[in-house]
Amino acid sequence: MIRKALFGALGAAVLMLTPLAAQAEMTPEAQVAAMQRGVNIIGYDPLWKDASKARFKPELMQTIKDGGFDTVRINLHAFDHMDAQNRLSSYYFSTLDTMVQAATAADLHVILDLHNFMECADDVTACRPKVMAFWTQMAEHYKSAPDTVMFEILNEPYGAVNDVWNDMIVENLNIIRKTNPDRNVVIGPVSWNNFNHLDTLKLPAADRHLIVTFHYYDPFPFTHQGASWTPQFKDVSGIRWTPEEGAAQLNADFDKVQAWSQKANRPIFMGEFGAYDKAPMESRIAWTNAVARAAEARGWAWGYWQFDSNFIVYDIPKGEWFAPIHDALIPKK
Q1: Are the beta carbons of 112 and 76 closer than 8 angstroms?
Q2: Between β-strands 210-216 and 185-187, what pairing exists: parallel, antiparallel or unpaired?
Q3: Distance between CA atoms of 26 and 187, rounded to whole angstroms?
Q4: Which domain holds residue 219?
Q5: What span, in angstroms and rounded, lies between the C-alpha atoms of 311 and 274?
Q6: What phi, psi does 106 have (nearest 5°)?
Q7: Which residue of 110, 111, 148, 259 pairs with 73 in a disulfide if CB–CB is 3.0 to 4.6 A?
Q8: DSSP label at 208?
Q9: What is the CATH number of the domain that holds 101?
Q10: pTM (predicted TM-score)
Q11: Runs of H (alpha helix) within 50-162
């Protein structure tokens, strides 16, 4: 394929990307239709600091494709890899280039997602120049990447970011558009990409290369029971979910998103959803299947949280899919 040939051998530090000949502009609607089923990957993998300790290997991109997925959302904790002048290290770029190359060779769509949302909520004043510096470098570095590569300005804005998020969207789109005028960019609403806040988004009307995202973990007491990072639910267990009791609310929530999408004329990518592995397995399977199928029925792409670690869909040490969740996401034909 042309896209596979595009990504040749990596340079010592930086992958040099060559533009596709007569590359056609991909509309966000076409991109969402092609993205279909995705999974979040490698945000917390040791590979970012020490390649010898990597859990995720590049060849797993083909495993993801063969497993029925079409998209990877690469979660980037980039601030840890910036110097005092907010410059990203050559090791960081070479590591990311290896993964983008492998994903592209596997014919996967790639979302480069800036995932430093907690740092931004803690200190939005310090965060804003870092975000702008990140996209200045990333936009230049990937300006000739194929159109299967997308940018996501910031994961789950919340806290102090809520008040300035629309300004941050504009300032970073202005940076990206200097070198990537037609690349599709993923943007979500405030309060952790909560669908109830879609109406607060103020997107540049003239920019028709935007994909709107939201994250779905409702009902939260079910999806996050037993999770140590949620104090109110870390000691909770045994909460169940059934289609009979929960499908009506799920469909009402998704109908609200669909109504906004149609009114705003913006396509939808559900960038995260999942039920933590402390929830009853039968309910996790039912919920995961119901959420994925409800998204697909409305023509949205989706990205499961996450590949390994908690919310697991693939067991890296065993080298095999975690069948209950994988089969709920990708039903056997």
Answers
A1: yes
A2: parallel
A3: 17
A4: 2-329
A5: 6
A6: -85, 5
A7: 111
A8: -
A9: 3.20.20.80
A10: 0.93
A11: 60-66, 90-105, 117-122, 124-141
